[in-house]
Design goal:
319 residues, mainly alpha, ABC transporter involved in vitamin B12 uptake, BtuC, 78% helix
Length: 319
C-alpha cells in the first residue's frame, strides 16, 4: 500500500508540472522560451534553497515560520557589514550564515528543551528578527555592493545563472543528507514516531538542534542570494516567503505529519510554484488573485496528504 502511494505521488507531481507547462504554453507563446524558462527557475531559486531546510523540519512533523524573517535579517546584516562597516564580502557572508545557523539552533533548543510548540517558537522568532532587521538599517534600504559580490545573484556560468547553480547544489546536499547519511534516517524515524525513535536510542533533542540549525543555514544562504540578486538590502525582503516555501515542500509530497517525503519531489513542488507564478503574470492575473490561487493549492496539498494518511491508518488497523 505504501509503495503504491509513493509511486502515485512521484508520478503525479511531475505529471501535474507537465500539464501546467503545456497549459501556459498554449495560453501565452512567450512562456516556452529559453530566456523565460531560465527566468522561472532563477525566480524560484530562493524558494528552492530555503525549501531544503524546511523539508527537514516538516519531515520531523514541525514547522518553521521564521524563514522569511531570517532571509530579511541576513539580507540586512550582510548588507550592513559590507557597506556600513567595510567588511570583506566573504567575511560578511560567513558571519551572516553563522548567525542564521545559530538562530536556527536556538529555535531547535527551545523546542527540544523547553518543549514550546514549534509554531509558537518560530512565530516569535519571526517577529523578533523581523524587528531587528528594521532596527539595524533604521528601516532604510542598503545598497552599493562590490561587483564580485553581485555575481552571486546576477552572474552566469556559461548560460546558466549562478542562483540556479547554488539551488541545484543545495538540493544535491539536501538529498545526500537524507539518502546517504544516518542523520537522514533519523529524520524519518523521528517524524514517523518520536517516542519509538527515542526508545531505539536516537538522541531526539540533538536531531532537533541539527534540523532547525540546517533550516537557519539554508534560509541564510537564500538571504545572501536574494541580496546579491536584488543589489539592495531590504528589511522586508523575505516577507511572506515562509508561506511559499511551505507550499513548495508540502506540494512536493512531504507529509505535514512527518516521516514521509523526498527532496526530488520538493524540486517538482518548487518548479510548480515557479511555473504557476510566471504563467499567471504572463496571463496578467492580479497579484491578489495569485495569492488566492496559491492559498487554495496549499489547502489542497495538505488536504490530500491528510486523506492519504487517514487511508494508511485505516489500512494498518484493518491488518
Amino acid at each position: 500500500m505504501n509503495k503504491a502511494i509513493d509511486i502515485i505521488r512521484n508520478r503525479a507531481i511531475y505529471a501535474f508540472l507537465a500539464v501546467m507547462v503545456i497549459f501556459f504554453t498554449i495560453m501565452n507563446g512567450n512562456f516556452m522560451t529559453t530566456n523565460n524558462l531560465l527566468n522561472v527557475v532563477k525566480q524560484v531559486s530562493i524558494y528552492g534553497i530555503a525549501s531544503v531546510g524546511m523539508t527537514y523540519v516538516i519531515l520531523l512533523g514541525g514547522i518553521d515560520l521564521s524563514i522569511g524573517s531570517l532571509i530579511s535579517f541576513v539580507n540586512i546584516a550582510a548588507a550592513y557589514l559590507m557597506v556600513n562597516t567595510g567588511w570583506n564580502p566573504w567575511l560578511a557572508i560567513i558571519l551572516s550564515l553563522m548567525v542564521s545557523t545559530v538562530i536556527g539552533f536556538a529555535n531547535g533548543w527551545i523546542i527540544a528543551e523547553i518543549k514550546i510548540p514549534p509554531l509558537i517558537v518560530t512565530f516569535a522568532s519571526q517577529t523578533i528578527f523581523s524587528g531587528l532587521a528594521y532596527i539595524i538599517c533604521n528601516g532604510r534600504p542598503i545598497s552599493r555592493f562590490s561587483a564580485s559580490f553581485l555575481k552571486i545573484g546576477q552572474g552566469h556560468l556559461g548560460v546558466v545563472p549562478i542562483p540556479i547553480i547554488i539551488m541545484v547544489v543545495c538540493f544535491a546536499i539536501g538529498a545526500f543528507i537524507l539518502n546517504k547519511t544516518y542523520f537522514g534516517r533519523y529524520f524519518y524515524a523521528l517524524g514517523g514516531n518520536e517516542e519509538a525513535a527515542e526508545l531505539s536510542g536516537i538522541s531526539v533533542k540533538k536531531i532537533k538542534y541539527l534540523v532547525y540549525s540546517l533550516s537557519g543555514l539554508f534560509a541564510g544562504i537564500a538571504g545572501i542570494v536574494m541580496l546579491a540578486r536584488a543589489n539592495t538590502g531590504q528589511p522586508n525582503a523575505g516577507l511572506g516567503y515562509e508561506f511559499d516555501v511551505i507550499t513548495c515542500v508540502v506540494l512536493g509530497g512531504v507529509s505535514v505529519n512527518g516521516g514521509s517525503g523526498k527532496i526530488s519531489n520538493v524540486v517538482a513542488g518548487v518548479l510548480i510554484i515557479g511555473v504557476l507564478s510566471n504563467g499567471m503574470i504572463l496571463m496578467d492575473i492580479s497579484s491578489y488573485m495569485q495569492m488566492v490561487i496559491k492559498g487554495i493549492i496549499l489547502l489542497l496539498a495538505v488536504g490530500s496528504d491528510c486523506i492519504q494518511q487517514a487511508g494508511l491508518l485505516k489500512a494498518k488497523k484493518a491488518v
